[in-house]
Amino acid sequence: MAEQNKPNPKFIAFTGPGCSGKTTLIKSLNFNKFLTGEVKNIDSHTRELKSKGYPINNEGSDDTQIMITFGHYMNIKNGLGCNCIFDRCVLDGFIYTKWLCRLNQVSPYVKAFAEGIFLENITRYDHIFYCVPDFEYKKDKDRKANKKDEEMIGSLYDNEIRVLENILHIHHGKNVITRLTGSVKERKKVVEKQLKRL
């Protein structure tokens, strides 16, 4: 009987292009207020890979994208047994690998690998918040994509999100993707409203 009353851990992901406000938004939220049980934040592992010598983002390689994809796979397969908040997810790994493949910087087999991990694991998330980049794109030391790249990445996200909205609705029997627009304050309100429903 005690086992039946055990909380069901939630997997919640924040996805979207670089500089779309994911990390800032996650830091502004108190997930413990809405989720029963322990909450663990799972940070993006891209910068950690950079510190180990892997070229990232527009300089990404086969090795980098394999490691990024594998990192997302290990995150979703974790045995932590608690609520997990993901800063990026298997969708992000696939989108960036697909983009780099179009630029001929990543091999087709790596794209196929990332796509397989994405398709086999995307339904594991209980809810996905898509941070729409509806504000001016700003470069930083790790993100050097030009306007053309930025538009291509944005288009890839928009296309995949549209398809996923239908697929995940069918799989979960409810809306699982929430689009976030506007200021951090506005996005925060939308996320908190959705978290109350989980």
Keywords:
single chain, 198 residues, alpha/beta, Rossmann fold, five-stranded parallel beta sheet, 7 helices, 5 strands
Full CATH superfamily name:
P-loop containing nucleotide triphosphate hydrolases
Main sheet summary = 5 strands, parallel
Strand tally is 5
Counted up, domains total 1
Helical stretch count? 7
Helix/strand/pairing category: alpha/beta
Percent range of helical residues: 40-55%
Q: Would you give the CATH topology?
A: Rossmann fold
* CATH class descriptor name: Alpha Beta
Shape: globular
Q: Unreliable segments (pLDDT under 50, ≥5 consecutive)?
A: none
Give the CA-CA distance, first to last residue.
22 Å
- Beta percentage is 5-15%
Secondary-structure element pattern, one letter each: EHEHHEHHEHEH
Q: Indicate the radius of gyration in whole angstroms.
A: 17 Å
Question: What's the layout of helices and strands?
Answer:
Elements (H helix, E strand, L loop, with lengths): L10 E5 L6 H7 L10 E4 L3 H6 L10 H15 L6 E5 L2 H13 L5 H14 L5 E5 L15 H26 L4 E4 L3 H12 L3
Question: Would you mind describing this structure in some detail?
Answer:
It contains 7 helices and 5 strands, in the order βαβααβααβαβα. By secondary structure, the protein is an alpha/beta fold. The protein has one domain: P-loop containing nucleotide triphosphate hydrolases (Rossmann fold), CATH 3.40.50.300. A 5-stranded parallel beta sheet has the order 2-3-1-4-5. The two termini are 22 Å apart. The model has no long low-confidence stretch (mean pLDDT 89).
